[in-house]
Structures are given as structure tokens and as C-alpha cells.
Task: inverse folding
């Protein structure tokens, strides 16, 4: 037998030590990399867990939409933070509905502020059985469109125990037929619905009649119908009361707030005493009175002195003129101007920090003053360039401009005030028109202009400051949360409006520009590949 031939042993030169250490060093380096890798993975896992805990504990959302659609207003935040009971919101929108995603995002924003809202999404097309059960429960009317899609008269149902509030598609989006644009109003509809199911008792606001006051049924730009609609949507009860009528149904009993808005005839002693007794019994009053002219165009008293004297306030029975060009509206005498708000709970929404964020439009106003011991505080003031005159006959009868030379008072002038009387029990002298005494005393807000409640204030975006002022004033008087006044979102086109030029442009893009661009990119990619192939061939030949 032949013995196997072994390969010759590989020897390393005696003077070379590095060759002997190659294998151990490589092994140590690999182990070090593995250890660092394991530690890095473990640390990354710990950091990820901590970040998830922090995100869960401190939940925060950012609205990056260019119109701020999902940024919640102050009134909505106050409503959500005050919830103490579960609110169920059932959404009856199909997945193909363009509003479905907006509703989901908005309800997610609501859920980030409170845990009391439970949202439930029911697709009428996919979940027919569940929809039928809820349809019977909430009494929803449903029907089908021409393409077979199921639609309902209520897109959302807001429920709390046995109280329901229905929100339709028209409540979520306001469509302007004039310019064909749509404006989102989803937040307004949702918050109003939550308020209505959350508040079990409706607060009554009574508007006086009998002295040619502005009517709550007037839907014009200078009427009160828009304010009435806003109040009723916020769970207020609105009632008209004739102060000159002795009928039982014209009593102020049950009213939390009585509003005297724009009387053109002076109140007699009887109606004035009714208002005074109402406040003495614990009720609150809103007084908005323009200067009243008599038959000779003289400014006369409106008969409201007995009421205002309770708070140490009084009207001057004058006419205010603003001469500051930055505040007065052009094209007039200065009778239309922007008043500056002063710090008060009513004006909280008009400030951005310590700076004035919005001013209030005043028109045809008279000024107010207070006695030395009065609790009244100013709400709105004019500039130091304003003045007030007691006689406007030179302008009314002769057309002459009003000058500060004959001014009875100079600015700054107060055009709105508020006061809270000490809380006390109703006296025997009171008529019992007001409700039971509350934790706070009777409250009075008086302004020398009635334009604060005009309907145009709620429809025109530039008058947002005026709208916020009057809504907050009513809420403060009634001791209720602020009215839901969501800033108007930016409108957008409601549909696609294509002209002949637009169709021609689409034709060019679809049939010319896009195919040409694809062809150019294809040739460029092919050219780059060929250049790369040539370079590789050259390198291989050289090697």
C-alpha cells in the first residue's frame, strides 16, 4: 500500500507577526460590530417605546391644510372640555361620499380634545342591516338616487341618552349660488349639535316690542332674524314680549335675559318700571339704543333711565362723531366707525394676547357715562379724536357738517358698558317676572347703537368682531357658554367650471404634452444606458 501524500505545510516567514494576527483581529472586529449592533437595536427599541408612550400621553395634532379646516375654534374647545357625559355621534355617509373623509378628520380632531365622544361610522350601502336598525331607532328617512346610491335626510346623528340632534349635508357645507362656491361649516354644525343634546334646559331670551323696536322676524340686513336663528341653534328660546300689554302671555316670567333693541319711541313709566322690577328680581338686561329724535329733530330721552340707574349708567342723548381716519369709514361724517374693545370677559374673543385682534362696528351712536360709585365698566370706546354733539339739527335740516367746535364732549367716549349688581334675593316689591336668583347678581349691558345686532353682521366676514361682541354679550348676560361662532372657513369652487380655453388646454396636455414628455424621458434613459454600456466595454478591454 502506498501512503497518502500530504500537501506541503504552508509556512510563514519568521519575521512576519502581522500574518499570525489577521484571523484573531478579524474575529474580534466582527464580534465588536455584533455587540454594537445588538446594543443599537436594543436602544432603538427603547427609544421607540418611549416615543410611543409620549405620543399616547401627550396627543397633539397639527392642521396643515391651507384653509385651516380642522383647526377648532375657542367655542368648540370650551364645549368639548366641559363635557361630563358620553356623546355618541353616528355617521351615515357612504365611503364614496366626498364629505366622508372631512367628517372623519373633524371627529378625530374632536376626539383629541376629549374622551367623551364616541364616533360610529355606518355605510348605508355596505352595512344595510345595521343601517336599518339605526334608521328605526332614530327615525331617519332614506331613499335612493338614480344611480342606486342610498341617501338619508340626516347625515349625522348626535345622541346623548334620549336626546337626539340631526345634522344634514346642507348643514355641513354652505353653498353660495351667486358665485358657485362652497364654504365648509362642519365644525359649526357639530358643536351646535353637541350643545343642544348636552344642555337639558333652554335659556329664554325675551325681546321687547311696543316701542317700534327692531323685530326678531325681520330677515333683512338690519333685522334680528339672523340673531334669533343663531340663538335657537345654540339651545336658546327666543320670545317677543310687548311691554305695553297687560296680557298674561306678555309677561317677563321665565325670561333669563330681556333685550331692548333699537326703540324709536320713548318708553313710558309703566314699561320702564317693568324692566326695572325684572332686574331687581335677578334678571339680566341688554339695552341697545340709538339716539331718538323728536318731531323737531332734537335728541330726546328714551325713557330707559330707571333701568340704567340701577347700575349707575346713563345715556348722554348725544351723537358721536369719529374723526380718526384709521377708524372712521370714508364717505360720511364719521358716524360709522370702529370702536376699540376694553378688557372684559365679554371682549375676550376680540383680543390676541394683550393686543386688540378685532374691533366692533358702531353706527349712529350716543355715548354713555357712569356715576362715581357705579360698578359699570367700559366695553367699547372711541379714539381721542372723537367728539359728541347734543344738537344735530344743523346737519339734518341745513346739511352743514358737524364740527368739534361746538362739541358737548370730546373723546375718548364710551359707547358700550357692562355692570353686574350684587347678588341678592328678590324683594317683595319685585313683580316676580325674573327667574329664581342665581349665583351672580343681575347683569346689564348697554350700548348707544343698535347696529350691533344687525343681520349683516352674521353674514359678512369683515364684521366678525361685531358678531363676536354681541354673541359674547348675550352669553355673559345669560351666564351660558359662548355661542358657537366658528370663523368662516375659506370658500372653494363647488364644481369644475370648464371653458372652451380650458378644454383646449386639457386637450393639449393629455394628447401632446404628456406623451411628448414620456417620449423624451424614454430617449434620455436609453441614451444613458448606452453610454454606461460603452464605458463598461472600454474598461473590460483595457483590463
Result:
Amino acid at each position: 500500500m502506498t501512503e497518502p501524500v500530504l500537501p506541503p505545510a504552508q509556512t510563514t516567514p519568521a519575521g512576519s507577526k502581522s500574518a499570525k494576527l489577521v484571523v484573531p483581529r478579524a474575529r474580534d472586529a466582527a464580534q465588536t460590530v455584533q455587540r454594537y449592533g445588538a446594543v443599537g437595536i436594543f436602544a432603538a427599541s427603547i427609544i421607540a417605546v418611549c416615543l410611543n408612550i409620549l405620543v399616547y400621553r401627550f396627543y397633539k395634532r397639527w392642521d396643515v391644510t391651507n384653509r385651516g379646516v380642522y383647526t377648532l375654534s375657542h367655542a368648540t374647545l370650551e364645549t368639548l372640555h366641559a363635557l361630563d357625559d358620553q356623546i355618541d355621534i353616528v355617521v351615515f355617509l357612504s365611503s364614496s361620499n366626498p364629505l366622508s373623509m372631512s367628517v372623519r378628520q373633524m371627529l378625530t380632531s374632536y376626539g383629541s380634545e376629549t374622551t367623551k365622544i364616541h364616533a360610529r361610522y355606518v355605510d348605508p350601502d355596505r352595512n344595510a342591516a345595521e343601517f336599518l336598525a339605526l334608521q328605526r331607532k332614530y327615525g331617519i328617512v332614506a331613499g335612493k338616487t338614480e344611480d342606486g346610491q342610498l341617501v338619508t335626510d340626516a347625515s349625522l346623528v348626535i345622541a346623548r341618552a334620549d336626546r337626539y340632534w340631526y345634522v344634514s349635508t346642507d348643514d355641513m357645507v354652505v353653498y353660495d349660488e351667486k358665485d358657485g362656491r362652497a364654504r365648509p361649516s362642519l365644525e359649526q354644525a357639530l358643536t351646535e349639535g353637541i350643545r343642544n343634546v348636552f344642555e337639558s334646559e333652554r335659556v329664554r331670551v325675551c325681546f321687547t316690542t311696543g316701542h317700534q323696536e327692531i323685530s326678531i322676524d325681520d330677515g333683512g340686513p338690519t333685522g334680528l332674524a339672523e340673531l334669533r336663528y343663531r340663538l335657537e341653534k345654540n339651545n336658546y328660546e327666543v320670545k317677543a314680549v310687548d311691554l305695553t300689554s297687560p296680557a298674561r302671555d306678555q309677561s317677563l316670567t321665565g325670561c333669563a335675559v330681556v333685550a331692548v333693541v333699537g326703540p324709536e319711541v320713548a318708553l313710558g313709566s309703566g314699561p320702564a318700571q317693568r324692566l326695572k322690577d325684572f332686574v331687581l328680581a335677578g334678571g339680566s338686561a341688554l339695552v341697545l339704543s340709538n339716539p331718538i329724535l323728536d318731531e323737531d329733530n332734537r335728541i330726546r330721552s328714551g325713557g330707559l333711565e330707571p333701568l340704567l340707574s340701577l347700575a349707575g349708567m346713563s345715556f348722554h342723548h348725544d351723537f358721536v362723531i369719529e374723526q380718526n381716519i384709521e377708524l372712521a369709514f370714508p364717505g360720511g361724517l364719521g358716524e360709522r366707525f370702529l370702536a376699540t374693545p376694553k378688557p372684559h370677559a365679554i371682549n375676550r374673543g376680540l383680543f390676541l394676547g394683550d393686543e386688540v385682534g378685532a374691533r366692533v362696528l358702531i353706527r349712529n351712536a350716543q355715548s354713555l357715562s357712569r356715576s362715581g360709585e357705579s360698578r359699570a365698566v367700559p366695553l367699547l370706546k372711541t379714539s381721542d379724536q372723537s367728539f359728541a354733539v347734543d344738537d344735530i339739527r344743523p346737519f339734518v335740516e341745513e346739511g352743514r357738517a358737524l364740527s368739534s367746535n361746538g362739541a358737548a364732549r370730546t373723546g375718548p367716549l364710551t359707547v358700550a358698558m357692562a355692570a353686574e349688581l350684587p347678588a341678592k334675593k328678590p324683594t317683595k316689591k319685585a313683580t316676580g317676572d325674573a327667574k329664581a336668583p342665581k349665583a351672580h347678581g343681575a347683569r346689564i349691558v348697554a350700548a348707544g347703537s343698535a347696529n350691533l345686532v344687525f343681520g349683516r353682521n352674521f353674514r359678512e366676514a369683515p364684521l366678525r368682531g361685531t358678531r363676536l361682541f354681541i354673541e359674547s354679550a348675550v352669553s355673559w348676560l345669560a351666564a351660558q357658554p359662548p355661542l358657537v361662532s366658528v370663523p368662516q372657513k375659506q370658500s372653494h369652487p363647488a364644481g369644475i367650471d370648464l371653458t372652451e380655453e380650458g378644454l383646449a388646454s386639457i386637450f393639449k396636455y393629455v394628447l401632446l404634452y404628456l406623451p411628448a414628455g414620456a417620449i423624451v424621458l424614454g430617449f434620455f434613459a436609453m441614451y444613458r444606458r448606452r453610454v454606461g454600456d460603452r464605458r463598461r466595454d472600454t474598461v473590460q478591454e483595457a483590463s
About this structure: The chain has twelve helices and 27 strands.
